[in-house]
Amino acid sequence: MTTKVFIQGASGRMGLAIQEILGESKDKALKLSDSLAAAELILDFSTVEGNQALLKTLSASKSKAAVLIGTTGLEKKQLGEWEKLAKKNNCCVLIAPNTSMGIFLLSRICEMFGAALFDSGFDIEIAEIHHRNKVDAPSGTAKLLAQSLNKAVPKLKVVSGSRNQKRSREDLGIQSLRGGAVFGEHDVKFLGDNEEITLSHRALSRSLFAQGALKFGSWLTKQKPGYYQLGDVEF
């Protein structure tokens, strides 16, 4: 059975990458839909404004389409509105600030490493760099990694940008760089007195995010109605 996919932000770089993958794929489980009303899976890779327009449209409808939100920069209140929509429309909503399988696994590894290394006296820092046109900092991916670390070590407190005082034991620093055409680079550093461990991820093309979006989207269509985050995903 074919799932009809609608892309919010279809003319953007991610939207075009997803369309290219759908067009080339031999797997006919997913099919592009030109109608939001007919869609069974909605992939949102737009802007904050585009995301909120989509929310308004779906709130006024009875659509039960599953919605994967890849748009980053959303505030806590805006995410809360999506959670309300999942309950109101009895549909599935997945918040996916990064759809790379590598980042998905890296977030799980951070959770595994976090508690053991923090308890052993290591400091934890995150460094990330993206292309010059990215509007949000820290990135949604950096926040995702921080959430995974915070899940393992609840006392960690995110500090982004410049510091004007000595680092505290509970600091989880995030440094963001912007420039060039970088797809996305993330380093999670565990810094001890006698040794250091760095977990790194480098995105080499936008297609990896498009492929991941379709994989996560396919997973979402098989779930019970509810509000999901990447930490809830199991393959």
State the helicity in percent bands.
Answer: 25-40%
Question: Can you list the strand order of the major beta sheet?
Answer: 2-1-3-4-5-11
Rg of Cα set: 18 Å
CATH class of the largest domain: Alpha Beta
Cα distance spanning the termini: 20 Å
Largest sheet: 6 strands, parallel
Structural commentary:
- With 235 residues, the chain is α/β, with parallel strands linked by helices.
- It folds into 2 domains: 3-99 and 207-232, Rossmann fold, CATH 3.40.50; 101-202, 2-Layer Sandwich (Dihydrodipicolinate Reductase, domain 2).
- Helices cover 35% and strands 25% of the residues.
- The chain has 6 helices and 11 strands.
- Strands 2-1-3-4-5-11 form a 6-stranded parallel sheet, sandwiched between helices.
- Strand 3 (41-44), helix 2 (48-59) and strand 4 (66-69) form a beta-alpha-beta unit.
- The protein is globular.
